[in-house]
Amino acid sequence: MIWNEAKECMSRDELNNLQGMRLVKLVDRVYHNVEFYRKKMQGMGLEPGDIKGLEDLSKLPYTTKLDLRDNYPFGLFAVPQSEVVRIHASSGTTGKATVVGYTRRDIDIWSECVARAFAQAGITKHDMIQIAYGYGLFTGGLGAHYGAEYLGATVVPMSTGNTKKLTTMMQDFGATAIACTPSYLLHIAETLEESGEISNIKLKAAICGAEPWTENMRLQIEKRLHIKAFDIYGLSEIMGPGVACDCEYHKGLHVYEDHFLPEIVNPDTLEAVPDGETGELVFTTLSKEALPLLRYRTKDLTSIDYSQCECGRTLARISRFKGRSDDMLIIRGVNVFPSQVEAALLEVSEMTPNYLMIVDRVNHQDTLQVQVEVDEKFFSDDMSALDALTKKIEGVLRGALGLAVKVKLVEPKTIVRSEGKAVRVVDNRKLQ
Amino acid sequence: MAVKQVSVFMENREGRLEKVTEVLKNENINITSLSLAETADYGVLRLIVSDPEKALLALKEADFSARITKVVAVKVSHVIGSFHTMLKVLENVNIEYMYVLSTFDFASMILKIKDYDKAEALLEKNGYELLKEEEAYKANE
Questions:
Q1: A408 touches chain B (CB under 8 A)
Q2: Is the CB of B20 inside 8 Å of chain A's CB atoms?
Q3: Which end of chain A has less neighbouring CB within 10 Å, N or C?
Q4: Would residue A77 count as lying in a domain?
Q5: Does the domain at residues B71-137 carry the CATH identifier 3.40.50.10490?
Q6: The complex's ipTM?
Q7: Residue A311 has pLDDT above 80, yes or no
């Protein structure tokens, strides 16, 4: 089902006109309201009047996560705080979180975009949907929630952390849809299979996102749960979930181009790549009021297809992601930067310089183990002190990452020393 | 008069204990008593050996994380109830852990106590004999 035919099936010409108009207004607004952009543009000898349409997009400066960090927390906001009705935050590369904000209108647009995505998955007001993304500062939970409510579905705000309750309510309430990470859904499938309850559920559709997954995983989910599974994409800097979503043909994710202007650029030269080639995904937020961004570099690597889809939508499709151009990890749907882990560990004074992060997937659940070498400073004959120190490190990491982490104490010299830059992460997951 | 115990950090995997004993054997060091405390992931091996300083150096050379800890070594007579009586003497002292050092002639308890001096004083006052260092290290020679 197409939620917003007027916008999702516009002719490319109409769409480009709309985008061009919005871009011009956007540039004017950020120039006058965001000191960072004004200074940047002035430094480039650029004025709002120089941007007359889409053809001038490449004249505009890029924005990166570092810019958000340098202007932490609200330096890039284009509206006074009294207009901001919501703040969300996600992982930053160091200790500082990446902070984003929304006006009332931003929330409405966000909800409408997510509604489009859920409609793509065949969800209507007659469905009951369990939202099993984390609720809180993370945009996943509340983003999906508001979108499902906007659509009119019956929303059950499960959040994460209690699979037993989720599967019990899924059966007792007769939920027909679920929004969660694909690995969590596989874990749920396994739990239901083991308890023999899989035939009790009434699920028809799942909207999965927040982490990369393969076509094979999608087919597994569909087969084991007898449902249709859809791929939703988003990032908090741009909005949250609902920037793009695939349709029943699963040939790429339709980007809601009336609000998000995509580009694919070479991550090294920053030049546009030829149509259809892989490069870094860049977004300009055409409608956002509180935190509008020009040419934000997502670090996700993908390609774009502008041809019309069989579903009837004219919105361009981005392919399944080919990777990232940085070292960010996604663990249980949470963004984790190795540098962020390092910054947290260094806060613990007894911490040794030799440690290793091991990421794995056990029973479809991502795990993060941090191995710490026990050296002179660390070792104590008192085991309760060793335990307390282990718990302290686990606590510091949980606070910094928003993830439960297991710390394993290992003997000296067991962690491989490298000649050049220390290898701090081993990712044992092989996505199949 | 503190007896020196060697504590060694050990991961909970095969071959590590064997490696420790290999090091000690190669250095001609005798083990007079030991205890192994464990958690799910790691263990701490505690040893009374014939030459604790030499053992510490050798184990560190072999990349083990080890240190010396002061413990109380007190003789307990081979009589039923004698240990109970001794514990009563120490009833206000917090004992962290303990294990036995036994020879044919005598038994002694190795006690790890935070307030080491207080325990020593209490035991001596009540007529208990504390092992001298050399007695503990050479107990079975």
A1: yes
A2: no
A3: C
A4: yes
A5: no
A6: 0.85
A7: yes
In a domain, A400, yes or no: yes
Task: Domain B3-69: state its class.
Answer: alpha beta
pLDDT band of residue A128 (cuts 50, 70, 90) is very high
Picking from A324, A345, A364, the residue at the C-terminal end of a domain is A324
| Predicted structure pTM score | 0.86
* DSSP code per residue over B76-135: E-SSTTHHHHHHHHTTTS-EEEEEEEE-SS-EEEEEEESSHHHHHHHHHHTTPPBPPHHH
Q: Which two tokens stand for residue A241?
A: 């979930």
Q: Please write the tens of the pLDDT for every residue from B31-42.
A: 999 999 998 889
Q: Is the CB of residue A384 less than 8 Å from the CB of residue A423?
A: no
Interface test with B, best of A370, A411, A416 (most B CBs within 10 A): A411
Range of the domain at A414: 334-427
Structural domain spans, chain B: 3-69, 71-137
- What pLDDT does residue A432 have? 64
What is the token pair recorded at A189? 């499938």
More confident position, B53 or A338: B53
Sequence-distant (6+) residues with CB within 8 A of B140 are: B30, B32, B103
CB contact under 8 A, A381 and B11: no
